[in-house]
Amino acid sequence: MARRKRIKGVNLASAITAVIDAIGSDADKALRDSMDEAGKYCKDVLKDISPRQPTLPRDYAGKHYADDWKSERINGKVVVHNEKQYMLTHLLEDGHNLVNSKGEVYGWVEPRKHIKIARDKAEEALNKLCVERLQKEFGSDAALQGTTKVDFTKGNHE
């Protein structure tokens, strides 16, 4: 039979704080790993579904717009961006006017929604990864089983 030891109030508080800190750091690591993996998934989806047409400009190495997506952690957030041809993202995602040298509008280029699609898929993957990793870390908790959607702030590509 296990022997019980009395813990005084001050020691109990420090013991609880130590346990909460340990759980918090484990949960934080699980969430950070999930965010990194979801960012890489978003980058891969963007590489697959971004427009690859010969009319789109290539960089000096001959790479397409779709090849330049990068995922990185900046200030605790995972950012996925087109590293070399960033100026095309909003034009392709939202569409734009065609303007001649006189400044006259003579047409419209239809939008090609690829960033929103990739972001939605990455959010869904992140939700699943977070729940799976937290359940793996802390066991199958009833509170986590009902969790399927996390609210994200809307990005610039809505």
**Average pLDDT, all residues:** 79
Distance between the termini: 61 Å
Gross geometry: elongated
Radius of gyration: 23 Å
Quickly count the helices: 4
Major β-sheet strand ordering: 1-2
Sheet with most strands: 2 strands, antiparallel
The count of strands amounts to 4
Find the structural class using helix and strand composition: alpha+beta
List its traits.
158 residues; alpha+beta; 47% helix; two-stranded antiparallel sheet; 4 strands
Structural overview:
By secondary structure, the chain is α+β, with helices and mostly antiparallel strands. It has one domain (9-145). Helices cover 47% and strands 13% of the residues. It is built from four helices and four strands; from the N terminus they run αββαββαα. The chain has helices at residues 9-49, 89-94, 115-138, 142-145, and strands at residues 69-74, 77-82, 96-99, 105-109. The strands form two sheets. It has a two-stranded antiparallel ribbon with strand order 1-2. A two-stranded antiparallel sheet has the order 3-4. β1 and β2 form a beta hairpin. α1 runs antiparallel to α3. Mean pLDDT is 79; it is low at 147-158.
Q: In brief, what are we looking at here?
A:
With 158 residues, the chain is of the alpha+beta class. The chain has helices at residues 9-49, 89-94, 115-138, 142-145, and strands at 69-74, 77-82, 96-99, 105-109.
Q: Would you spell out the secondary-structure blueprint of this structure?
A:
Blueprint: H1 9-49, E1 69-74, E2 77-82, H2 89-94, E3 96-99, E4 105-109, H3 115-138, H4 142-145
Antiparallel strand pairs: 1-2, 3-4
